Amino acid sequence: MRFMDLVCIVTGGGSGIGRAACQQFAAEGGKVLVVGQGPEHGGQTVESITSTGGQAAFAKRDVADSAEVQAAVQAAVGRWGRIDVLVNNAATMTFLPVVDLPERDWDRVLAVNLKGTFLFCKYATLIADGGRLSIL
């Protein structure tokens, strides 16, 4: 069990690749904090883990908000004492042609995809003291 007792944070863990990562970490013994904007999807991920005896919790957070990112990191540390693995999976995109794309939509893409990754790396390292933290 490669992740036995390791504390894992996965952003965008409510669906798709993020959900699969959460489930795999838990299946291999990890304790998983599922971070997302929607409790309905994040809750489903947590339920799929806990129903098979794994450890998981959900944190409803906006990855582009500094205070919310710090709160998510603190939640993992408060619950399990540390952070060992961080997966920055949260992302958003648009399919509009650039000429039709509202600037606010472009700003949101950058905020989630870039700023969110920056904030989680920053605060996970600061709060977890960077010890054995693996950032993916």
Structure description:
The chain is globular. α4 links the parallel β4 and β5. The model has no long low-confidence stretch (mean pLDDT 94). It is 48% helix and 16% strand. The longest helix is centred in the last third of the chain and has 26 residues. 38% of the residues are buried. The chain has one domain: Rossmann fold. The protein has 136 residues and is α/β, with parallel strands linked by helices. It is built from four helices and five strands, in the order βαβαβαβαβ. The protein has a five-stranded parallel sheet, sandwiched between helices.
Essential attributes:
16% strand; 136 residues; single chain; five-stranded parallel sheet; Rossmann fold; globular; alpha/beta
